[in-house]
Structure formats: C-alpha cells, structure tokens
Design a protein that fits this description.
10 helices; elongated; 4-stranded antiparallel sheet; NADH Oxidase; 245 residues
C-alpha cells in the first residue's frame, strides 16, 4: 500500500511536469478522488462557482492538445482536468446554501423566531448575495459601485461589486480548487501541469460547455518522465516577498 505524502512533502514534490510517461496510465478513480478533494477548497461565500471536467478519453485529449498549442504537457497527458468558472450559476448556488440552512434550522421558521446565526445566514444568501452578483450588462454594477463610493466615505465597506470584480472573485475561487487538486495528486505520486496557454473558446465548444462559463485553467495529468521537469526550481528569495508588520 502506497503511503501518501504529508502536505509539506506534497508541496515540495509538486512540479509543473511537461512530459509524462505514456506507458504509465493513471487510476481514474484515484484522480477522481483528488478532484473530490478540490471541492473542499476555501471559496468565496461558499458559493462554489465551479465545475470540473475530467477528461479520460485519449481521443478527446488528442483533440484538445492542438488547442493547447501542442504543448508537450497536453500531448503526453494521460488525463486532463478542466477547471471551469460558473459565475452564471450564482442563483442556484445561493439557493443550495439556503436549502442547507433549511436542513439545519427547519424550512418555515418565522423570522421572529430565527436565531442570530440563522437570521444572518438567510439574509446573506437571500439579500446580500443577490445584491453582489445581480447585474445587467454591467450597468447595475456601476450603480452599486457609485453607491459604495458614497457609503465608503463614512465607513469601511466591501468595494468589489462590479461585474468584473465578481468575475475575479469567481476565478480566484476556482484557482484555489485547482491548487487543492494538484497538491492532492502530488500526495499520491501523480503529476500535473497547469496550463493557461490554451484556446479556451474552442475547448469550450469541443466540450459542449455553456457560453456563460469560463475556463480557469486546464491541468494535465500523468506520471513524470525525468526530462519532463525543465530544470531546477527557481523562486524569488523569500525575504524579497515576505513582510511582517
């Protein structure tokens, strides 16, 4: 039985592997488990505005590779995971959170009898989230932004309320899930490479993804070949990027 690496060991083991051993297939169920662990990543307001497309078909991988500009990481991949941002699902995800709240406190608790935490949670997903995510062609976002500017003159307030701001929030969330996935893969000696150099529009069309969805990144998967790691790891010295205040 393979002993999984510790978190620290997995982080140090993980490298962006550009060439995989095509003679060493991956266990699909183990990769799927790592994707499941990706869903445990922290995410903004627990909205979970993501989807994960697990590509195990070699035929589809061969179709995707040219759309990744024939990167070796794509051409030699044994499997691929496409991390997809679904900001358009914000209503469904907010309702899912409200349903979860119902399962804890009951569905028909009168407002006058709601406990403090329940009342805050229902208000958050029933009012604040719709205020933050609702928009029409970006117009409502700018109206919200002007309102926030005025309120912000008098007290601290959340300011990222425009359409482009919420898009960034959703992509940050999806990136956290991707990192969870890659560390989980490294823990079981499976290798990955996150790829941003892709034609996301054509990949969306190939996979039949909704128009409103956005691809955050593709992660190729396999077992590394020694030549698949392009040199020693380089990082800016820690003291150059670390500040204690």
């Amino acid at each position: 039985m393979t002993i999984e690496k510790t978190v620290s060991e997995a982080i140090h083991h993980r490298r962006s592997v550009r060439i995989f051993d095509e003679k060493k297939p991956l266990d699909t169920s183990r990769v799927k488990k790592c994707i499941e662990q990706a869903t445990l990543a922290p995410n903004s307001s627990n909205m979970q505005l993501w989807e994960f497309i697990h590509v195990t078909s070699k035929e589809i991988i061969d179709e995707i590779a040219p759309l990744c500009f024939n990167q070796n990481a794509a051409k030699t991949a044994q499997q691929l995971v496409v991390f997809v941002v679904r900001k358009d699902l914000w209503k469904k995800r907010a309702n899912a959170n409200l349903d979860f709240i119902d399962s804890i406190y009951g569905k028909k608790t009168p407002k006058s009898e709601q406990l403090g935490r329940e009342k805050v949670a229902r208000n958050y997903y029933g009012k604040i989230i719709p205020f933050a995510y609702f928009d029409v062609m970006g117009i409502f976002g700018w109206l919200k932004y002007l309102l926030i500017l005025i309120i912000g003159l008098f007290k601290p307030i959340y300011r990222e309320v425009r359409k482009k701001d919420m898009r960034i929030v959703a992509h940050k969330t999806c990136g956290l899930a991707a990192q969870n996935f890659m560390i989980s893969m490294a823990a079981i000696d499976y290798d990955t490479c996150p790829m941003e150099g892709t034609d996301t529009w054509r990949i969306k069309k190939l996979l039949g993804l909704p128009k409103a969805s956005e691809i955050n990144m593709l992660v190729s998967c396999g077992i590394r070949k020694p030549e698949g790691i392009y040199g020693n790891r380089f990082r800016i010295p820690f003291e150059k990027v670390y500040t204690e205040v």
